Amino acid sequence: MKLESVGEVIATRTLLLLRDNTAALEVLVLLGKPQAGPDHQYFYCPYQVKGVGEEKMKSVYGIDAFQALQLTLSILGVELEVLNKELGGKLRWDRDDKRGFGFPGFLVSP
């Protein structure tokens, strides 16, 4: 299923991309409301990372809305970790002094 938008946004998080000799760039994480799939056999939770990378809308599927939401939060953490490595470790969330992003899938590297 191709998404046109994340739909109703239920949560956002602002991250900062630190850049040399210029102001930091805002990176926005958007989390959409879990929705029933077209056949109502599953739920999906749409999300998007805007401001850096491919900015493509994505979704994660689950048996119900809770599972779709839980899996999406974990996958977001992993995707942000990968993106941060691609950006040379310059992505930050100002609420985490351990350089995490506050998502359960994130693994802090030494």
Rg of Cα set: 15 Å
Shape descriptor reads: elongated
Mean pLDDT: 89
Q: Work out the helicity level.
A: 10-25%
Number of helices: 1
Characterize the biggest β-sheet.
6 strands, antiparallel
Number of domains: 1
Q: Approximately what portion of the residues adopt beta-strand conformation?
A: 35-45%
Number of strands: 6
Order of helices and strands: EEEEEHE
Secondary-structure content class: alpha+beta
Low-confidence stretches: none
Distance between the termini: 38 Å
Write the layout of secondary structure elements.
Layout lengths: L8 E11 L2 E11 L2 E2 L6 E8 L7 E5 L2 H22 L4 E2 L18
Antiparallel strand pairs: 1-2, 1-6, 2-4, 3-4, 4-5
Keywords:
6 strands, 1 helix, 110 residues, 35% strand, single chain
Description:
This protein has 110 residues and is an alpha+beta fold. It has one domain. The protein has one helix at 65-86; strands spanning 9-19, 22-32, 35-36, 43-50, 58-62, 91-92. Strands 1, 2, 3, 4, 5 and 6 form a six-stranded antiparallel sheet that branches. Strand 4 (43-50) and strand 5 (58-62) form a beta hairpin. The longest helix has 22 residues, at 65-86. The termini are far apart.
